[in-house]
Amino acid sequence: MTSTTNSTASSSGGGSESSNENIPMDSSTSSSSSSSSSSAPNNIEMEYNKISDDRNGWQHVYQEIREKCEREANEKHFCTSESEKAQNRCLNRYRDVNPYDHSRIVLHRGSVDYINANLVKMGRAERKYILTQGPLVDTIGHFWLMVWEQKTRAILMLNKLMEKKQPKCHLYWPERKGPENALKLNEVKLTVEFLHWTEYKNFCVRWFKLTDLQSNQNRNIIQFHYTTWPDFGVPSSPVAFLYFLKEVRSSGALDPNEGPAVVHCSAGIGRSGTFCLVDCCLVLVDKEGVNNVSVQEVLYELRRYRMGLIQTADQLYFSYQAIIEGIKLLKDQKFMNYNEVVYNSVEDHCQQNDECSLDETPPPLPPRTHSLLPMAGSGADGSLRLNLAGNNSQGKPLPKIPASVSFNELYAPDNDKNNKDALNNFINKERNPDTNITHRPLPPLPTQNSLDRVHESDSDENNDSDEDSDDINDDEDDDEDAGNELNENAAESTAKHKQQHNSIATSESADQGSMKLNGIEAGSSEPTSPDNELRRRKRAERQANIEKKVNDIKRKQRESEENKQTAKKRRSLITYITAGVVVGVICVYVYSKWT
Length: 595
Description:
Elements: H1 2-21, H2 27-38, H3 43-53, H4 57-75, H5 86-89, E1 104-106, E2 114-122, E3 127-132, H6 140-149, E4 154-157, E5 162-163, E6 166-167, E7 183-185, E8 190-199, E9 203-212, E10 217-226, H7 238-250, E11 261-264, H8 270-288, H9 295-303, H10 313-329, H11 333-336, E12 344-345, E13 376-378, E14 384-386, H12 417-431, H13 448-454, H14 456-470, H15 479-513, E15 516-517, E16 520-521, H16 530-594
Parallel strand pairs: 3-11, 4-10, 4-11
Antiparallel strand pairs: 1-2, 2-3, 5-6, 7-8, 8-9, 8-12, 9-10, 13-14, 15-16
Organism: Stomoxys calcitrans
EC number: 3.1.3.48
Enzyme class: hydrolase
């Protein structure tokens, strides 16, 4: 647990530094923060340092809190009988997370009055929350009915719908705007309409219109969805979490004169408890002073309303970090006035599910570019210039071709050969103006990607043969067929190689009859042309590749034969053992009959 805590500390600390870089700070702010850091630590910081100095301090403190809360729950008879009723068990997401009866939310409309939710209050901080689980497919109506009856203004969602390929919460809001796409909850006589949304780096904000069909009244509901908080984990940094808390507070959803905010994650105890603990402690610090607040006592008070708040020692550790950081930042005007950049808004872009709205005009397609195949031309300074085929009338030249131009153009179609020769002549002339054209340096060997483009059909067939040969060991009964296929593939590859060799030899003999290269005559004593040398190198490369693939096929064929022999021996051994067992059983049976 020590390594986990330490790693969490380092990751949280690093995230805090990176997040602080995005917040504008002036010299006065930095000096005030440095002076506060040099001053004596408060009680919360002293408690934090004391726990951190112990090797397993956070795990020990967390275990003590759990044991003390369990003893208190048994002494005060905090029961969960309503959640254990047969008709209500299917309404719980987790069988070990149940609401206390004395603080559970009771529904007053419909055939069901139960929902896995508790009203959590902190009188000293004038805070009240409804902590609940992520809605199930059968509890979406109960969830929105609770929001309506409790006069809730905001929903705080601290989890994703899917986490680690596991469903953590059912989608309980409509995905598209407009009344025609509203979510209709006939069982509880409510409708939910999606209005708009705004996305930030770590969270997004959605606005809904909740309408009661019985009274024809409606109410706007804000949902704050924190999207980067992992299950059983902590946010990326205290600063990122505090900015989320600042936005929630700025909406007025946590004010005492409003209905309790609904806070949920997957179970409604881990991440939800962390949010409530940090918010309550920061309110108490602001009201009573930092030295009059005990984080653990606040957590004990919250746990009297809902079991299991704060699920891990890392979440407790992060809560202390966020409280200590929040004491400084929430009094800093630079932080309070800082507005994070909006990543996306449904009013300006597409819908939440990345599908554009039907009433929006799609953006225009990008302009189609002209072909960049060069047309040889010469500038006034003797430099080679390339003009776009479609812009000859404008006569705007492209930039000069650098000396390091790619030679992959050699693999273009034959009708562009003249242009490429002119380009190569210019490059070699620029490099070595005093050197004869026949002594220019040869281009580098082509890469495997270039060979694959030239002989795409050959590589595809060879890849198919490799894929077929990889499946030799799939079934013992198909060993002989696989071996035959390997032999056929090897024969085809050999024949193809011979055919390519003959075609290349023919082309070489034809090239040898021509004694001119790029318009300059070469004697018979001069070295071979670059084109012939390149073809020779490509032929050598292809031959080496074919030989390698043939060797691989032969190796796999040998392995197939060995596996086949092993399988035959195994089957023979099993047959002998089975026959022996059968004979033994018959003998025992005959002996028992005679005796």
